[in-house]
Design goal:
flat, about 20% strand, alpha+beta, two-stranded antiparallel ribbon, Atp Synthase Epsilon Chain, Chain: I, two-stranded antiparallel sheet
Amino acid sequence: MSAPMPFWRAAGMTYITYSNICANLVRNCLKEPHKTEILNREKVHFAVSTWKDGKAEKPVIRSDVVED
């Protein structure tokens, strides 16, 4: 007899995908001003460096935020 499978695995998702979907649902259910607060906290900024001759060049700052 096989062990029971989690429903997110049976649906063909990874746990990370499942938890991201749940987190988005919770964020969308929040009322103001908490919703804005949480959405601002979700923004991600990161630096990307290209390597040339074994040394990192000047990093470029990127963001997942769409700017108007």
